[in-house]
């Protein structure tokens, strides 16, 4: 891939095999995609633009079209006629626009709770906006948890960093009752077939890299390799393949709060 002529030929073949040889626009939404995935596809000539929206605003929110390599990890800029702001008190992304819903059917209390007094819809997402108007989601308000030390941890950004390791198929950062958070992980099929020592060495390297890039109170105490995959059928994933964090924490509560040993532990 690093050799110009050969790399171009290989990239062209990969695009053709993926059915993307003639794609003019590739987009990702519904759930976060790791920056490393976008950067890898960029190397083979496939630019994936992220977008964001909700059922409550007819999915008319923001997008990173046209693609900008320097804005990878962002959901882009708000669409025309969309007034998007970041709440000063908790960093929530709030949105107002012609595509916003009027109400939840026969649920006036839920409708009122979902809107601010001046008419903005409360998305539940936390985020930041840079000087160019590009928005980056930093987590979900409901997913933020407090450790036993009384420090708040936002799991989504940490999970995204861990997912840069292709050995990790699924991840959930948790630890509301722990002094330091931990990450439950499910290995990829390839990793499950690889030598245990090699896998654990790679995971330990990733753990050290991630911990070096985040605040000390959020540093992960360990990675825990889970035995079973998380699926829609076993109730640990939503139909859109998002991890049901609270269901997962309830199911493995006793295990999560038990005394684990080593930086890389196993269920």
Automatic annotation (TrEMBL):
SUPFAM superfamilies: Acetyl-CoA synthetase-like (SSF56801). Residues 18-105 form the AMP-dependent synthetase/ligase domain. Pfam families: AMP-binding (PF00501), AMP-binding_C_3 (PF23562). It catalyses: a long-chain fatty acid + ATP + CoA = a long-chain fatty acyl-CoA + AMP + diphosphate. Keywords: ATP-binding, Nucleotide-binding. This is AMP-binding protein. It comes from Paraglaciecola aquimarina.
């Amino acid at each position: 891939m690093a050799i110009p002529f050969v790399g171009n030929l290989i990239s062209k073949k990969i695009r053709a095999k993926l059915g993307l040889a003639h794609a003019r626009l590739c987009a990702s939404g519904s759930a976060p995609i790791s920056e490393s995935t976008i950067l890898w596809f960029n190397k083979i000539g496939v630019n994936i633009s992220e977008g964001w929206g909700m059922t409550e605003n007819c999915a008319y929110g923001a997008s990173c079209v046209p693609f900008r390599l320097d804005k990878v990890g962002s959901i882009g800029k708000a669409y025309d006629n969309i007034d998007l702001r970041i709440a000063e008190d908790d960093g929530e992304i709030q949105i107002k626009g012609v595509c916003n819903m009027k109400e939840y059917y026969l649920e006036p209390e839920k409708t009122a709770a979902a809107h601010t007094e001046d008419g903005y819809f409360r998305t539940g997402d936390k985020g930041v906006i840079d000087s160019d108007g590009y928005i980056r989601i930093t987590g979900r308000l409901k997913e933020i948890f407090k450790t036993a030390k009384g420090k708040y941890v936002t799991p989504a950004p940490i999970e995204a960093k861990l997912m840069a390791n292709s050995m990790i198929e699924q991840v959930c950062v948790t630890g509301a009752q722990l002094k330091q958070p931990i990450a439950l992980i499910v290995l990829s099929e390839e990793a499950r077939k690889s030598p245990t020592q090699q896998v654990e060495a790679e995971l330990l390297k990733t753990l050290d890299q991630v911990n070096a890039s985040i605040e000390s109170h959020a540093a992960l105490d360990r990675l825990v390799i889970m035995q079973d995959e998380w699926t829609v059928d076993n109730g640990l994933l939503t139909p859109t393949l998002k991890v049901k964090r609270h269901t997962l924490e309830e199911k493995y509560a006793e295990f999560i709060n038990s005394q684990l040993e080593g930086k890389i532990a196993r269920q």
